[in-house]
Amino acid sequence: MPTVTMIGGGQLARMTHQSAIALGQCLRVLASGPTDPAAQVSGDVVFGSHEVLDDLREAAEGAVALTFDHEGVPLGLLEALEAEGVAVRPPSKALRFAQDKLDMRNRLAELGLPVPDYADLSGDVAAARDQLIAFGDRNDWQVVIKAVRGGYDGRGVWLVDGRDKALAVFDEQAGGDTVLMAEQKVTMRRELSAMVARSPYGQGAAWPVVETVQRNGQCAVVLAPAPDLDREIAQQAQQMALRLADELGVIGAMAMELFETADGRLVVNELAMRPHNSGHWTMDGAVTSQFEQHLRAVLDYPLGDTSPRAEVVVMANVLGAEQTPEMSVDERLHHLFARMPDAKVHMYGKGERRDRKVGHVNVVGAPGDDVDRVRERAERAAHWMSHAVWTDGWDPHA
Amino acid sequence: MPTVTMIGGGQLARMTHQSAIALGQCLRVLASGPTDPAAQVSGDVVFGSHEVLDDLREAAEGAVALTFDHEGVPLGLLEALEAEGVAVRPPSKALRFAQDKLDMRNRLAELGLPVPDYADLSGDVAAARDQLIAFGDRNDWQVVIKAVRGGYDGRGVWLVDGRDKALAVFDEQAGGDTVLMAEQKVTMRRELSAMVARSPYGQGAAWPVVETVQRNGQCAVVLAPAPDLDREIAQQAQQMALRLADELGVIGAMAMELFETADGRLVVNELAMRPHNSGHWTMDGAVTSQFEQHLRAVLDYPLGDTSPRAEVVVMANVLGAEQTPEMSVDERLHHLFARMPDAKVHMYGKGERRDRKVGHVNVVGAPGDDVDRVRERAERAAHWMSHAVWTDGWDPHA
């Protein structure tokens, strides 16, 4: 059976390895060290850096495809690997749009896909400052400043409150290593994510559109499917994601994060060309998980059935608490399993740190369950795993 | 998180590792070599023999529990490990009944559980021959001769047709290394399996009773739940399995294989104290898979929900064909995925050999699907994976 290499040893690689096992494979992982979540569990680990061409070459040796757990590999190295015949999936020509928010915005705008108003602040500092002022005035200073590259989970995004704050952030960041852009702050009802996958053959497949609930700038909860989403809007989101994957030549899983505006329109927020937090619900809630699908896509296998297995599935992230509880993760798991024998837990083998994603819980609703009930259970389980506190105040010793 | 060691590197260990990953663990495997199915995929492999105490000790070092992928570890070695404080699960006092069919029959009979008539042929050869003759006469020579230890997948079982054949098998085998027993050949409607799990705390959980379809003496297809099984009979089977697990002090998953007789009674056939082929359907068809449940049990975690996810689930084994097809497994998988995007395939990373279990396919029925349709699809998929031939004659080039 073929070998696929994934660059990065995080939880996405860890969970992709689970799916690789079913397909008769072992995922090869380029990890930075033996405690990386995927390095702990794979039988084929290359240690090295995703920023060193020789390490990438070693990881790619004999593999039929090279793919990614994160967007951090410098484009030049990927182009070098492609020139040497490595099947980089998604290819560098597509991945650049996931690495560079400004390129992404420009390309989306070219394709006529709905994006928030934005401004390029990457040039000469004085000129960029003037641009920011014009952009802010035009948007009533409902403005977000973003790092063009490298941001994730709330990092590299500044929610600025008015002109003074915006200029202060700009003055602090501009001229340094961080290339900046400004974006209109969209008045939104909620955030959605349209996950799709695309194979080299050109086959595309879309999962149901989900609602993502953010806390402190990162994903906390995913509701699948997005409750009460207009059917036409859902189809529009799926079609936008499939079309974009096709136009960019994406290979593998892709998440298109969207805003649903207060007046019911869609605006594209971010892109990720890999398995994504908004697709973790598929592990227990869809016929084909995003991890298996990503492998099928990069291997140019026909894609799997994306049907949900239940009317409602909710995923809640286990995020490191402000104060790590005294009770061990192992003991917390005991208590959770005692209370919720149907909760599907996925732990990543990571140390706990405030707001760090260390696992997630999926709760698959029974027929007729409403989304609030399923969500309450998923969040209660995840909060317990983070804090060793039950959100409903339950105390077995009381 | 705790480490569990599994002795044996076969497909059961491979699939247990998949479940260990979700629980934040890495399964440690004692494997005979790097091509063992589990050794290919786990990040924690000890190479050695399950018949060498020092190898077992090395594998057990630092693990919270030691468990098994097969029944082949000599009891004396397990007792030695237990004396050294290793948490052997299931413990030797239970496992002996899965290793020795005669001990098992005696114990089941003592407990009043229904067993076929049987005879101990382990003693003096001449006396045992006389016993066989008396036993055969009593049962109209509807007789099976079995090896007391070490048989599996049809090995160590002789279906003899009448007195002459029975005595011929006896005369050939008796006095050698193989200890023998005779059993009444039960006139049966079909074979069933009741899978349960039990934790050290004493919690038990049962999955729905399934029908197992045997070919050439080994499991080929599993129908979950067993179609048209009387509700009381199903509950009786579950209760027998739960009671036996409790009486024997089993820890982990246990399969009780049963005959449903022509007149609708249950008779116990075999026991396995580990994840079992008749439970593979749970990977895609139940809230908690047998592999996760086995880990939960050996770790003394509360057990998971055993509810099925659909009205009908069918598992079909991918068995090596008489002639290995020219088409590679990888290419066969392409074609299967193209035709059946909902088929859940589990390949074990094993070389193909006639009748060897190299993988399995689960098909989870849609609401309202009848069992024949789901079975036809699962068998078609598995036969394709074995033979590169579609059972319905489909030819994409025609």
UniProtKB/TrEMBL annotation, chains A, B:
Pathway: Purine metabolism; IMP biosynthesis via de novo pathway; 5-amino-1-(5-phospho-D-ribosyl)imidazole-4-carboxylate from 5-amino-1-(5-phospho-D-ribosyl)imidazole (N5-CAIR route): step 1/2. It catalyses: 5-amino-1-(5-phospho-beta-D-ribosyl)imidazole + hydrogencarbonate + ATP = 5-carboxyamino-1-(5-phospho-D-ribosyl)imidazole + ADP + phosphate + 2 H(+). InterPro entries: ATP-grasp, ATP-grasp_carboxylate-amine, ATP_grasp_subdomain_1, PreATP-grasp_dom_sf, PurK, PurK_C, PurT/PurK_preATP-grasp, Rudment_hybrid_motif. Keywords: ATP-binding, Ligase, Nucleotide-binding, Purine biosynthesis. The keyword Oxidoreductase does not apply. Residues 105-299 form the ATP-grasp domain. ATP binds at K101, K146, E183, Q184, K185, V186, E191, N269, E270. Its EC number is 6.3.4.18. One of its GO terms (molecular function) is 5-(carboxyamino)imidazole ribonucleotide synthase activity. PANTHER family: PHOSPHORIBOSYLAMINOIMIDAZOLE CARBOXYLASE (PTHR11609:SF5), PURINE BIOSYNTHESIS PROTEIN 6/7, PUR6/7 (PTHR11609). Catalyzes the ATP-dependent conversion of 5-aminoimidazole ribonucleotide (AIR) and HCO(3)(-) to N5-carboxyaminoimidazole ribonucleotide (N5-CAIR). Belongs to the PurK/PurT family. Homodimer. This is N5-carboxyaminoimidazole ribonucleotide synthase. It comes from Gordonia liuliyuniae.
